[in-house]
Write a structure and sequence with these properties.
The complex is a heterodimer of chains A (about 80) and B (about 250). Chain A is α+β, with helices and mostly antiparallel strands and about 80 residues long. Chain A is about 20% helix and about 25% strand. Chain A has a five-stranded mixed sheet with strand order 2-1-5-3-4. By secondary structure, chain B is an alpha/beta fold. Chain B has an eight-stranded mixed sheet, with helices on both faces. The chains are: A alpha+beta (about 80), B alpha/beta (about 250). At the A-B interface, strand 4 of A face helix 3, strand 5, strand 6, strand 7 and strand 8 of B. The complex binds zinc ion (ZN).
Chain lengths: ~80, ~250
């Protein structure tokens, strides 16, 4: 199945895309979506553990499976300078 | 606490349709604690004092350095070597003598944070590290006090108003938060004042009983502004399960 991931902030700016379309197999988790994103854009590898990933507008454990129709969003990590 | 408002001082903001004399009065009766008096904290303290928040406490034990001047508010070259919280108290008292400003020359930690935020209406994040933010988040949720997260790095700023029990907390939005302070990216001078403005607006809305606007992400270089409306995570260890590990560690 195909799944769309909405990109936020500099992920959108750097990729030049509002959203990305991925092939997902039944049983794939959110980690798979994150891995696929990084495979396409290795420049974001250092963010991998800290990205804000939401499924249906809620932060979810990345081990959760993706279902058809899920609404996924990936945003850059929380910034912490002052 | 002074209860009456000076209408002459606030006459321009009293004309704003979203605002009112009653709301100005509500701000006058409010107490805020700002943890950190640097780039974000000094700018937010300045804005809230001019807007007429009745009691502002600023907690910081750092001294002013030359490298602070590009992104902070109110500090001058003559202030280098002096304590941030004390200089902010002194200068803000001259800007608005009708409110109470208190500089507290200490560092917020797990032993004193609950006492520092006791009886405050809201906490503002003016810190420069994730550890203190997680501590503020724990103290906020445990004591049912709203707080407004803000952070800056490079050209990016983020803000999120957090009302315990109603909105997600900072730990709802990320399973892991990097302990890096993003200091390798630096901070562009103008960014903290803009993010502080957004932070103060979210603060005022919460003080007036309005809903905050979710996670706000702003890129000063690209002039891009985005909002994410993330829901509360029932499995969140802090606001979902009431485990306050940063207060207890
Ligand atoms: Zn939470």
């Amino acid at each position: 199945m195909k799944i769309t991931i909405k990109l936020i902030g500099r992920y959108k700016d750097i990729t030049g895309k509002q959203e990305l379309l991925f092939d997902i197999l039944s049983g794939d988790t959110l980690w798979h979506a994150v891995d696929e994103f990084i495979k396409r854009y290795p420049v974001f590898e250092k963010d991998k553990q800290f990205m804000i990933v939401t499924k249906n507008n809620m932060f979810t454990n990345l081990n959760e499976k993706i279902k058809e129709g899920d609404n996924l969003t990936i945003a850059p990590p929380v910034v912490s300078g002052g | 606490m002074k209860q009456t408002i000076n209408k002459e001082r606030y006459k321009k903001q009293l004309l704003v349709p979203e605002f009112s004399e009653q709301k100005q009065q509500k701000l006058q009766q409010s107490t805020v604690v700002i943890i950190g008096g640097g780039g974000l904290g000094s700018n937010s303290a300045n804005l809230l004092a001019r807007t007429g928040v009745g009691t502002i406490k600023i907690i910081d034990d750092d001294i002013i350095e030359l490298s602070n001047l590009h992104r902070t508010s109110l500090f001058t070259e003559d202030d280098i070597g002096k304590t941030k919280s004390m200089i902010l108290e002194e200068k803000l008292s001259m800007i608005n003598s009708e409110i109470t400003i208190k500089g507290i020359n200490t560092k917020a930690d797990k032993n004193n944070i609950e006492e520092l935020v006791h009886k405050t209406d809201i906490i503002l994040d003016g810190t420069d590290n994730i550890k203190t933010r997680l501590l503020i988040n724990d103290a906020s949720v445990k004591n049912n006090i709203p707080w407004v997260y803000s952070g800056v790095a490079g050209t990016i700023g983020m803000t999120m108003g957090i009302i315990p029990g109603k909105t997600p907390c900072i730990r709802c939005i990320s399973q892991n938060i990097s302990s890096s302070s993003n200091s390798d990216q630096g901070t562009f001078s103008i960014l903290p004042s803009i993010v502080a403005s957004i932070q103060c607006m979210e603060t005022i809305k919460i003080l007036l009983g309005e809903k905050p606007s979710g996670l706000i992400i702003y890129d000063i270089w690209k002039q891009c502004f985005e909002q994410m409306n993330i829901q509360k995570n029932p499995a969140c260890s802090c606001c979902g399960k009431h485990s306050f590990e940063f207060l207890e560690e």
